[in-house]
Amino acid sequence: MPKVALYNQSGSQVGDVEVNDAVFGIEPNEHVLHEAVVMQQASLRQGTHATKTRGNVSGGGRK
C-alpha cells in the first residue's frame, strides 16, 4: 500500500498514512476529471443573463 504524508495545521509532518491501492493506485481518467471541473465551474455561474425579445426592444420600428 502506498503511504501519504500527514501534516498538521502548522504545516509540519506528523506521520504517514497508508492508503488503499484499489482507490489511489489507479491511473486517473483525464476526460472524466475535465468534465467534473467544467460541471463544477458551470454550477458556480450566477445565471442572470437575459436576451431581449421583439417586445422588449424600444424603438426602431417604422409604421
Strand order across the largest sheet: 1-2
Low-confidence stretches: none
Q: What percent of residues are in strands?
A: 15-25%
Tell me, briefly, the overall form. elongated
Radius of gyration: 26 Å
The end-to-end distance, rounded to whole angstroms, is 79 Å
Q: Largest sheet, described in full?
A: 2 strands, antiparallel
Q: From N to C, what is the helix and strand string?
A: EEHH
The overall strand count is 2
Q: What percent of the residues sit in helical stretches (DSSP H or I)?
A: 25-40%
Could you give the topology of this structure?
Layout: E1 3-7, E2 13-18, H1 21-24, H2 30-43
Describe this structure in words.
With 63 residues, this protein is α+β, with helices and mostly antiparallel strands. The protein has a domain at 3-43. The protein is 29% helix and 17% strand. A two-stranded antiparallel sheet has the order 1-2. The chain is elongated, with a radius of gyration of 26 Å.
List keywords for this structure.
alpha+beta, two-stranded antiparallel sheet, 29% helix
